[in-house]
Amino acid sequence: MERVVDRILGFGSRRVRVAVDGLTAAGKTTVGHELARMLADHGRVVLRASLDDFKRPWNERHLRDRLSGEGYYRNAGDHEAARRLLLDPAGPAGSGVVALCAIDPITQIDHSQIVVQVPNDGILIVDSVFAFRPELNGCWDLRIWMEIDPELSVQRGLARNPVSYGAEDAEVVHRDRWLAGEQLYIAEINPRALADFVIDNRDLDNPVLLRDRPEIGGPINPR
Q1: For 192-222, how does the pLDDT look when each residue is reduced to its tens digit (9 = 90+)?
Q2: How many domains does the chain have?
Q3: Residue 222 has what pLDDT?
Q4: pTM exceeds 0.85, yes or no
Q5: DSSP 3-state assignment of 168?
């Protein structure tokens, strides 16, 4: 984590946008929080967000398939809103005025009018599945991929959210929607190859740094 923090601080006194991507229950949110705490200890203002808060409203689900893995990957995210409200204004040349949430995924309340100012040297850390997809990948200054096995993703996810989703069985949602969509993303985009840092997080007590790409900034092409 200190190596990741050093890399972020290496961008200097400008706004920095960091993405933490990986399968469901890979530890993205935990790592995002830990990075934020460590960077704050260095005197930087850090904002946290999740792209889960930038999805299309459920009342549009009849217009788009949201229930299959394919539909979850292709149709759930509102990438235009994520860029317009959060990622573009948080960039080095942006206004700095950002909304950290568009539509709350639980309550479906629109919070997009609630904005905060990112200072000129502020850091935005965003955790999400699908963060490196083409509509969003150009927004990131640093990309982190959390590596776990697909089956471990399902088991951790069920342990965290064991209840059913309305009339849907929790395991069906995890396997046939979320994991299926995430595997499609991996097959099409190869997000691991896009990452500056790859962290093996199969053992939560002993994460292993698998990649520390030395370059700072610039376009990154998958192998």
Answers
A1: 999 999 999 999 999 999 989 876 444 333 3
A2: 1
A3: 32
A4: yes
A5: strand
pLDDT for res 106: 86
Strands 97-98, 142-147: pairing is unpaired
Q: Name the token pair of 75.
A: 């149709």
Q: For residue 6, give both structure tokens.
A: 């050093």
Alpha-carbon span 191 to 181, nearest angstrom: 13
The stretches in the chain having pLDDT less than 70 are 61-64, 162-167, 215-223
What CATH number does residue 97 fall under? 3.40.50.300
Query: What's the token pair of residue 107?
Result: 């309550």
Inter-axis angle of helices 150-160 and 180-189, nearest 10:
140
Grouping H, G, I as helix, E, B as strand and the rest as coil, residue 179 is helix
Q: Are 160 and 54 in contact (CB under 8 A)?
A: no
Q: Which two tokens stand for residue 18?
A: 């960091």
Residue 28: domain span: 2-212
Question: 128, exposed or middle or buried, with CB in 10 Å at 0-12, 13-18, 19+?
Answer: buried
Residue type, 154: V
Query: Which among 64, 82, 62, 67 has a CA at the least distance from the CA of 19?
Result: 82
